[in-house]
Amino acid sequence: MKGVIIYSSKTGTTKECAQYIKDFTNYECFDLRDKAFKNQFHFSDYDFFVLGAPFRATILDKPMKKFLKKYGNYLLDKKFAIFGIGISNNAYAQMNKYYDNLIDESEFTVWLNGKIIIEGVKGLSGSITRAIAAQYQKDNKPLPEINKVDLEKFCQKLTTENNDITFDIDLKALKLKYTGDEEETEEETEEETEEETEEDDDNE
Ligand SMILES: Cc1cc2nc3c(=O)[nH]c(=O)nc-3n(C[C@H](O)[C@H](O)[C@H](O)COP(=O)(O)O)c2cc1C
What we know:
9 helices; 6-stranded mixed beta sheet; 15% strand; disordered C terminus; single chain
C-alpha cells in the first residue's frame, strides 16, 4: 500500500504534525502550498491518503478546501485518514462542514488541537493572533498545544491494525453524538468574511 500525506499549513503547526507522521510512516508528503504538489503529485499513484489542515475563523484552510473540491469524490474509492487542527471546542461542527461524509468514510479522523503562533504573522492576522494569545494570558490559561499523545496514536494506527487504540478526540466517534451544526454567532460570520478576503488578497 502506497501512502501519502497531504497537508496545508499557514503558521507551521500542521506542517509539524505532517512531518512527524512522515518520519513515523515514511509516506511521501506534500504541502498544498508548495510547487512540488502542483508539479509532482499524481492522485492515482497512491492507495492511502492522510489529510491535515487547520481552521481559522471556523473556515478550513483554503488549499485543503480546494483539494477536497477536486478530489473529495475520488477519495471515496481509496483509503484515507484525516487529522484536524485548531483550538475550537466545537471541532466536530467545523470538520463536518468541510469534510462532510469523508469523516464517515475515513479509516479514522482525529482532532489534534493546534497552537497559537505569533512570530512572523503580520497584518490583520497578526493583530487577531496577538489578541487571542492575550486572552489566554488574561484567563490565566496556557497557550494551546498539539495533542502529542493522539498524534503518536494516529501514527500507530496508520502503521498497525490495532483497533484498541482510541483517541482523546475521535471525530468519527463524535459523529454518533452529533445533532447538527450550532448556529454561528454574528461575530464569527464577520471574522469569516475578513479572513476570506485576506486569503483572497494573499493569493493575488
Ligand atoms: C486568527 C485565528 C483564527 C483562528 N480561528 C480558529 C477557529 O475558528 N477554529 C479553530 O479550531 N482554530 C482556530 N484558530 C487556531 C488555529 O487553527 C491554530 O493556530 C493552528 O495551529 C494553525 O495551524 P497552522 O500553524 O498549521 O497554520 C485560529 C487561529 C488564529 C490565529
